[in-house]
Amino acid sequence: MSRNFLLMSFSIVLAMGFIVVTLIDAHTYAGWLLMIFFVSVAAILRRYELLKGYAFTVMILAAVSLAMYYPQYFVSVGNVKLSILIVPLMQIIMFGMGTGLSVRDFVAVIKMPKGVIAGVSCHYLIMPFVAFLITRIFAFEDEVAAGIILIGSCPNGLASNVMTYLARANLALSVTLTAISTFISPLVTPLFMQVFAGQYIHIDFWAMVWDITKIVIIPVCAGLAFNKFLHGRFKVLDDIMPIISMIGIGLIIVVITAAGRDALLVVGGYLILAVLIHNLSGYFFGYWSARMLRMEEKDCRTIAIEVGLQNAGLGSSLALAMGKLATVGLAPAVFAPIMNITGSSLALWWRGRPLPDTNKAEETEDDNQIQHAKT
């Protein structure tokens, strides 16, 4: 028998076991069965080139399932709250992003101003406004609603460059949009939070400016400096930073899930639906806004991905800084795995539909640029 068949059979047995222990209220064991089920599914996905991009998200779901069933193990160790790890982990992740950037990524603004202006404008106009509308449709409590607006006000997601590469879209534009949206976020994110979320919670504008600066801007600048002066001297760092970033994102989501577990049990289904609508709206309105501006199909796809993917890690860090991790931090925690699933699906769907003007030269250029696609 093939290993794939054995893994699939094992997964089916685990799924059935989870259903049985859930029905008989043996929840002590249900979490472990669910976690192992997700791990086995991730192992199956890793064996297929087309699907292995989903393996990371499924592993996140495995960890989240443990946090939901056994939150006490992810809230604190002794007298030390694990939430103290969120900001340092985010700073490490942003440093990794900085090491994948260079001055030429900012010079690209001059080379393709229409794409950059359109992409940044769409991102910061569509996502906060859609978030605000969602909070008007769903009757969430104030702090949860503020979290939805927070994730909508954050800069581009760290995985957007990888998704753009997979979609065979404009990777150079994607990297530039991520960089620009990140560097203007200390002013733009607090502004939209004050405008749209000020009715739900108190927003300290300048405190948020400083929080974003120390969490994002300083580490990214340090990464840029590292790339400028020490590039190639620490190859091991280039190899491990994507792995560290993925582990860091996973830990952040797990800690937030554990902290907000009780609130998630109350609003979980509605919050997942609201976040999914938010995420898909970003892709839809981002793509069609670019089409209305008569941009090339390659750029339309890029802007759709850049608008739909948010920096959920930053949203979580800001929720912690506000002292509202268990409520404001819920939407960013839910948004992260959802956007990875939808983003990967959209990217792979577009990958199977080549652009009319795609040629070998463009594909080779994108392959050379993948080094910038840090997660």
Describe the structure.
The structure is a single chain. This protein is mainly alpha-helical and 375 residues long. It has 17 helices and 2 strands. It has helices at 3-23, 27-46, 55-69, 72-75, 86-99, 103-111, 113-137, 142-153, 160-166, 171-197, 205-230, 235-259, 261-292, 297-308, 312-321, 330-351, 360-369; strands at 76-77, 80-81. Strands 1-2 form a two-stranded antiparallel ribbon. The longest helix has 32 residues, at 261-292. It is globular, with a radius of gyration of 20 Å. Mean pLDDT is 86; it is low at 359-375.
Strand order, largest beta sheet: 1-2
Give the H and E element order.
HHHHEEHHHHHHHHHHHHH
Radius of gyration: 20 Å
Q: What is the 3D form?
A: globular
Enumerate the spans where pLDDT stays under 50 for 5 or more consecutive residues. 359-375
The CA-CA distance between the termini, in Å, is 36 Å
Total beta strands: 2
Number of helices: 17
Please outline the major beta sheet: 2 strands, antiparallel
Overall mean pLDDT score? 86
Helix/strand-derived category reads: mainly alpha
Helix content: over 70%
Strand proportion, as a percent range, falls in under 5%
Topology at a glance:
Elements: H1 3-23, H2 27-46, H3 55-69, H4 72-75, E1 76-77, E2 80-81, H5 86-99, H6 103-111, H7 113-137, H8 142-153, H9 160-166, H10 171-197, H11 205-230, H12 235-259, H13 261-292, H14 297-308, H15 312-321, H16 330-351, H17 360-369
Antiparallel strand pairs: 1-2
Helix pairs in contact: 1-2, 2-3, 3-12, 3-16, 5-11, 5-12, 6-7, 6-10, 7-8, 7-10, 7-13, 7-14, 8-10, 8-16, 9-10, 9-14, 9-16, 10-11, 10-14, 11-15, 12-16, 13-14, 13-16, 15-16
